[in-house]
Amino acid sequence: MTAETGIVQLEDVGLQYGSGPEVLHDVSLSLETGSFHFLTGASGAGKTSLLRLLYLALRPTRGTVRLFDRDVSRLGRKQRPPLRRRIGVVSQEFGLISHLTAAENVALPLRIAKAGAGEIRENVTDLLRWVGLGRELDELPAALSDGQKQRVAVARAVIASPDLLIADEPTGNVDENVAMRLIHLMEELNKVGTTVVVATHDESLVGRFGHPAYVLDGGELVRAGPLEGMRGERVEA
Ligand SMILES: Nc1ncnc2c1ncn2[C@@H]1O[C@H](COP(=O)(O)OP(=O)(O)OP(=O)(O)O)[C@@H](O)[C@H]1O
Ligand SMILES: [Mg+2]
Q1: Strands (E), the chain
Q2: pLDDT (tens digit, 9 = 90+) per residue, 113-156?
Q3: What span, in angstroms and rounded, lies between the C-alpha atoms of 5 and 38?
Q4: Which residues lie closer than 8 Å to 93 by C-beta, 6 or more apart?
Q5: Residues with Cβ within 6 A of ligand 1?
Q6: What pLDDT digit, counting tens, does each position of 207-225 carry?
Q7: Which structural domains are found in the chain, ordered by start?
């Protein structure tokens, strides 16, 4: 992999929240366009913090973050939206808009992409049915369980086929069956070109899919490589 082919490149990245302690230390990584990676590590290891850098919710305290071949380390607020629109995000807190129904939440990226009303309705309905929420289309987030909210968040993140999909514990609140379905959905998107990063505690999930995993430990990237090299080490299926 050359540096130019990466959709995401981090070089010696450090991150502090305000004047607090550094929570990411010298993180360097490169994600090739079209790749699928897991990001694992114990609670507090820094997975969410690392993903926030990738979807431009945070800027690094030091080091460089490059996205889509562009240095975004010091990007101003106004420069973010065009890049942000190329990224589908499933945040750990779901981030659904409380006054919009499940279907309206999922429709947002298509509306921003100026898709037609008929196409939006059809795609949204199909996708929500596929994740098992055909009866919840018109519910507000407050009426949904955490697992249902999570499915809405995943549907919203994938519906417009973003260039980069960043999912933070996207299966943390659903049963195994639904978890497999959600990961398969992301794999389908990956097959047609989306670069995918999925953070998860669930090492059995990582073991089940043949994708490489990055491992964070106390804010340091301690292991990066194909799953094969990790079996029997940190990521035991
Ligand atoms: N908004 C914040 N302000 C200050 N410190 C934060 C903030 N968010 C995270 N941290 C700190 O950064 C470190 C890494 O947290 P982070 O949420 O990135 O871990 P994580 O690996 O995602 O954990 P989990 O598996 O529990 O989601 C922790 O020490 C945490 O307390
Ligand atoms: Mg987290």
Answers
A1: 6-16, 22-32, 36-40, 62-67, 70-71, 87-90, 164-168, 195-199, 213-217, 220-225
A2: 999 999 999 999 999 999 999 999 999 999 999 999 999 999 99
A3: 19
A4: none
A5: 17, 20, 23, 41, 43-49, 92, 201
A6: 899 899 999 999 999 977 5
A7: 1-86+164-174+195-237 (3.40.50.300), 92-161 (no CATH)
